[in-house]
Amino acid sequence: MPGQMVTQALISKSSKYQFGKFTLGKFLSLLMVSGLIYLLAHRSSKGFVSGELHNKEVESRHASKDSPTIRTFWRKPPRLPPRLPPNEIYKNSSILHHPPSSEWTSRQKKVKEAFEHAWSGYRNYAMGHDELMPLSRRGVDGLGGLGATVVDSLDTAIIMGADDIVSEASKWIEDNLMKKISEKGQVNLFETTIRVLGGLLSAYHLSGGDQAGGGDSGIAVAPNKTNPDRLLAVSKDLADRLLLAFTSSPSAIPFSDVVLRDRSAHASPDGLSSTSEATTLQLEFSYLSRISGDPKYDSETMKVLEHMRTLPTVEGLVPIYINPYSGQFSGENIRLGSRGDSYYEYLLKVWIQQENYRNTSLKYLFEMYTEAMKGVKHLLVRKTTPNGLVFVGELPSGRNGAFSPKMDHLVCFLPGTLALGATKGITKKKALESNLLTKEDIENLQLAEDLAKTCVEMYFVTSTGLAPEIAYFHIEGNPEGGPDGGNKSSEYISDITIKPLDRHNLLRPETVESLFVLHRITEDPKYREWGWQIFQAFEKYTKVDSGGYTSLDDVTSLPPPRRDKMETFFLGETLKYLYLLFGESNILPLDKYVFNTEAHPLPVIRSVVQVSNTV
């Protein structure tokens, strides 16, 4: 009956009135009602998304088949996640803000500007000295007087495209370094190899000197900015003098110190060498043999690792001191911090570098690395109370002694090394798709991510957002307490103790190194976010207006007291890794390059001709 009345009303109107004032609007209304009736009769098998779904689970899958209500069509907009403070942002990667690529390009530019600011202070007040004292505005020579900051910075400048700095550093090296090498006295074998020799060789490669392996870097060669031939000549002269530490020793373990002008070498005052220092020389010397055609560099340094293969270990772990006279370990102190760290790093990286011999003559290196990582997991890895941070402790008195819940910032190299060892430099996604990961690889990747989080918490737990040199962790049954990091809003304030003598920050690179490697391998954007927060803290608290950046005495107090020292590795490592972290993955790909322990990239050696006579 009502339908007939509506029809009669429509018929009784004039045609103009029907079209202009009534029929169009009413027709649309009827159309909407008809559509509603149709939807009720032919609803989707999947049902409708309710606004309530953001807040609770659907009680039953059958509920989706119920008739929709009016609020289905006028539902509330979805609830946005809350904004978190910077030190909380990483806790839920699903709500991370992922800046567009243009923003990461902008952030990468900020790192380049920081490098230029650091260099300006060094150039203006300390050019030719090893390091800058930015507050005193003068230079200091604590590494033998070879202008270590110049050489350590050169490949960073090449990577960043800082052409003016490339020109300045290259000219200084060409005009001064050979003369300094011939005149200077005692230098440490390890520090000079990783910073100066490593820096020269990396710059040689990146500036186009190595035609056989220079096409994979993704970095444009700036013409006429460097002199590769001169870089190689200086490298050979320096290496020839450093080789005296190997040939003068009665064992395969080199002496720790070299007198450059006298071409002589000797042991340290206590007669011992650090295990890490004696075993962290091979990447540089092997690559020099590759490009010079002279096998002596590779031969002498590889004897060290061959000898280490014969020594007893504790589940692959080794004491931090070794005697160059006897070739045997001294003491039982086992740790992955100072004097132990890069031994484990180079077991893996030397194996990666020599691609053609990974499954033959150098297979033992990966086997030693694998055994050592099993030992780390069994003997050194613990979790904190109350919140379960994963960390790596120490055995100061060996396997049968007490466990120490102490972890140096230096140990934060380990997450990157574990990730690199798991995938050999390719992405996790690619490794999984190709079925290349073993169960142990997957475990090591997880440990790498857990340890990286702990390393970042060492930053976020402090008042400045910068990490101390050393942290102690609370574990069950350990009554040792102490002062915290000062950031009372940190969830982990009760897990970490920072003792007064350990509160300094030296602008170290190990954490951002691991963030760089983990981002490349996992492709998880949280590692970039963490790196950006760390960079901002460096900018806020360590930047010196007149040029340079300074170390800090106490990261737990505000404002932090400053130490007046800019280490060479801030330019050579820290800023380089941050720049690469924010950049594209085709720059220095990790399956084609290995970074020495001072962040100097050297190419994986793929040549058919074997240079080494150690095989």
UniProtKB/TrEMBL annotation:
Its cofactor is Ca(2+). The active site is at 191 (proton donor), 341, 469 (proton donor), 510. Signal peptide: none annotated. Ca(2+) binds at residue 597. GO terms for molecular function: calcium ion binding; mannosyl-oligosaccharide 1,2-alpha-mannosidase activity. The chain crosses the membrane at residues 21-41. One of its GO terms (biological process) is carbohydrate metabolic process. Disulfide bonds join 412-455. Its EC number is 3.2.1.-. Residues 56-65 have a biased composition (Basic and acidic residues). Residues 56-79 are annotated as: Disordered. One of its GO terms (cellular component) is endomembrane system. InterPro entries: 6hp_glycosidase-like_sf, Glyco_hydro_47, Glycosyl_Hydrolase_47, Seven-hairpin_glycosidases. Keywords: Calcium, Disulfide bond, Glycosidase, Hydrolase, Membrane, Metal-binding, Transmembrane, Transmembrane helix. Belongs to the glycosyl hydrolase 47 family. This is alpha-1,2-Mannosidase. It comes from Triticum aestivum. The lineage of its organism: Eukaryota, Viridiplantae, Streptophyta, Embryophyta, Tracheophyta.
